[in-house]
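Re: beginner question about structure tokens

> Can someone show what the tokenized structure looks like for a real chain? I only ever see the sequence side.

Sure, here's an example I had lying around. Input first:
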Amino acid sequence: MKAQTGDEKAFYELLEPLQAQLYRIAFVYVQNEEDAVDIFQQSVIRAYEALPKLREPQYFSTWITRIVINCSKTYIEKAKQTDPTDPSELDTYASSNNPDIDEQLDLWEALRRLEEKYKTVLLLRFYQDLTVKEIALILDCPEGTVKTNIRRGLHRLRQQLKGAYIDEWVQSVEAGD
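And the corresponding structure tokens:
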């Protein structure tokens, strides 16, 4: 792989299709746009510096996703608390023409409040559309653990939201397993 030999252009070609999903992962962890951008940038730097050590280049996406998750967790640990989303930002979102925005915001808030292990697997499974096997590779844990954490995470989301739309969402997600 050219990127492993220090070719910056090749590295950014690998990174480009993943940027939005990597940013979203960081954002869900920190709930702050500036911090998510910082985490994303820090992750890119770490990945670029460590790229020559990547043993299996076909897993670049999995590998860089793990870096973003680890950088996000490190950031939270250092901050010891996440900054809540600025209420004025929510007003901006709510004023859009999207009738489902309240449901989406409720879902994101509930997801943010989940334990790390549940939040991470749900993000990777349903927002990044990764398979259980891919998630197990990223998190370096057995597939059974991933499946259990997905089920428990969905159950906790259902408990937090207790609304019809979460039941519909969970049923559609579970049907996709």
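Each token stands for a local structural state, so reading them left to right follows the chain. The first helix runs from residue 8 to 15.
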